[in-house]
Every structure is written in structure tokens, then in C-alpha cells.
Amino acid sequence: MDERTFERSGQHASVIGLGTWQLGADWGDVDDKQALAVLEAAAEAGVTFFDTADVYGDGRSEQTIASFVSGRPDLHVMIATKMGRRVEQIPEHYVLDNFRAWTDRSRRNLGVDRLDLVQLHCPPTAVYSRDEVFDALDTLVAEERVAAYGVSVETCAEALAAIARPHVASVQIILNPFRMKPLREVLPAAREAGVGIIARVPLASGLLSGKYTADTVFPDNDHRTFNRHGESFDQGETFSGVDYATGVEAAAEFAALTPEGYTPAQLALRWIAGLPGVTTVIPGARTPEQARANAAAARLPELSQETLAAIDDLYARRIRDHVESRW
Predict the structure, then answer these.
(1) Of 15, 148, 163, 294, whose CB count within 10 A is highest?
(2) What are the phi and psi torsion angles at 75 (to 5°)?
(3) Coil, helix or strand for 291?
(4) 26 pLDDT higher than 70
């Protein structure tokens, strides 16, 4: 699989990576055997970028990745984790002592001396304006606790604030055919600054797979049930913030645009991967088959101008007014 470069850090990632929130919690039940099988399938398909967080299963996702990687000394994979969501979300918690403690825990969970990439995990907006926060992150690099750092953001404004910081290597942002606002300013700014873009929630929590209907019921421990209206964290993380009924109808239209040889999910992933400025796309997977199908999207032909125009039209008609004012 093709790899792309995080210019500021010199690190490389497969254009299709693997998000591992599903392997920790909040997506129903995934047992350890199944989680390891997903990681194995992704690696065999050429995925060299795993994204995790200390809060996914309270460390379970990190530990599962460590278990997998420890048995594969020949495997080259960049592991990005996140920190900051295991405490009350106030700016005062984003200080060097906490950063050291949080990264020490992730280093233990992942079984490494130095983290490849640590990201602030959607911190309070005020954090982006605090010089001392980024000075503390620079200290982590100087102390060789981390090789590089980035941020995971909720809004385009937060992304632009992060890109303006000189040592931010990456910005992780929700980006998919139901969340196009980043195309206007965030992607161009990132390209100009040499900041990598990690596209998360690429399938809008599965909506863009075309598998769900108005009658689909998700498990109680799945965020698509308990966070549908932002009850537990930002609503934008669930179905990209689109009302479920609206999303299902729009997803059916999206699925109808799928070219021969693609699945709807692969159409979404190929669309994102083709955007200038995107470094890696991180779909999750609950099964090895999903992981392999996601990775295969990287090898599909470029989309036609007709298909691209139809995706743009669908967003403008059905989705834009639901999401752009908030994120």
C-alpha cells in the first residue's frame, strides 16, 4: 500500500490506516481473539498506521496493539495514541506533569520507550491558545518520551489553531462525504504548513457503509445508541453529527453512487484518500473481513468527475446545513 509522509516529523503512514476505538470499547463487544484477528488482517493488507487512545477501553486498545506487535518483530507500523480524556475536561489539566504521567501510562500499555505520535484528544478549545501547553509537548519530545505530537480536534477552527503551532506534526479531524467543511480551509492550510491530516470517522460511524436502515438497533454499549444526541461526548463523533433518520436517507443516496467494483464504504474511503492534503484515513473494523475490505480501497481506481460531482451535490442538498454551523 502507498505510504504518505508527515512532513514535520518525517514519519510515514499507509494511506489507509486502522482506527482501534472498536477494539477497546463503545462499539458493542469485541473479544481479544477477534481484536487480534482484526490487527493481523490489517497488517497483512499493508496497513502501517494504527490509531488508538489511552481512553479506549481504559487502555485495552493500547494493550491489545502491544500484544499483537510484540509477536511481530518484523512488522513496521506507526502507532499513534491520544491523551487527555481520562480526566475532567478543563484547560488546567493540560500541564507537563499530567502529560508525563499520561504518556508514561501509554508507554507501559504499548510496551515502548518512546511513543511514535501522541495527540491531545479533543481538548477544551481554550487549550489551543495556551503557549505553555505546546511548550510542555515540546518538552516531551526533548525528553524522548514521544517522537512527535499532534492534536485531535472537533472543529475546523481548532484545526487551524493547531496548524499554526510550529511543531504540531498532525491534526486528526472528522472528514468524510458527510463532513466536507475541512476541504475549504483546513486541508489547504495543512498542506502549506506541512502538517499531516489524519481523517477519522471516515464512514460516519458506519452510515456510509449503506448497511443501516431506520429500524437498525445498536447495542446499549455502542455509542451509536448512548451518544446519538451528544449525551456522553461531542455529538459530532457519532454519525458525524447528522441526525440518524436524515443520515440513513442520505446514505441510501450515497450508496446508489457506488461505481462497479466498489462497496459504498470503499467509495467513501477512496474519496477521502484522494483529497489533496490527507495523509492517512483511519476506518475502524470489527472483523478481519472489514479490515481487508477497507485496506483494499487504497488500490481502487480514481473516482470519475461525475461521481465526485454527485457526492458534492448530495452533501450540499442533504447534509451541509446539519453540520457546518457546529463543526
Answers:
(1) 294
(2) -85, 130
(3) helix
(4) no
- Number of CB atoms found within 10 A of residue 112's CB: 15
**Pairing relationship of beta strands 117-121 and 149-152 according to DSSP bridges:** parallel
The one-character DSSP state at 114 is: S
Q: In one letter, which amino acid is 309?
A: A
Q: Which residues contact 131 (CB under 8 A, 6 or more apart)?
A: none
Q: What is the largest CA-CA distance in the chain?
A: 53
Which residues, in sequence order, are CB contacts of 5 under 8 Å at separation 6+?
Answer: 11, 12, 196, 279
Q: Which of 191, 327, 305 is nearest to 259 (CA)?
A: 305
C-alpha cell at 135: 511548550
Helices (H) and strands (E) in the chain, counts: 12, 10
> In this structure, is the dihedral angle defined by the CA atoms of residues 290, 107, 55 and 9, taken in order, positive or negative?
negative
DSSP result, 213-255: -TT----TTBHHHHTTTSSSS-GGGSGGG--HHHHHHHHHHHH
For residue 23, give every residue at least 6 positions away whose Cβ sits within 8 Å of its Cβ, in sequence order, or none: 30, 35, 38, 39, 52, 56, 57, 60, 61, 64, 65, 284
Q: Any alpha helices (H) in the chain, and if so which ranges?
A: 32-44, 60-70, 96-110, 131-142, 156-163, 186-193, 223-226, 244-255, 264-273, 288-296, 305-314, 320-323
Residue 226 main-chain phi, psi, to 5 deg: -85, -10
pLDDT in tens, 72-100: 888 999 999 999 999 999 999 999 999 99
User: How crowded is residue 71: how many other Cβ atoms within 10 Å of its Cβ?
Assistant: 10
- pLDDT at residue 287 is higher than 80: yes
Q: Which three cell numbers stand for residue 81?
A: 495514541
Sorting pLDDT into bands at 50, 70 and 90, what band is 30?
A: confident
Mean of pLDDT values over 315-321: 97
Q: Are 151 and 172 in contact (CB under 8 A)?
A: yes
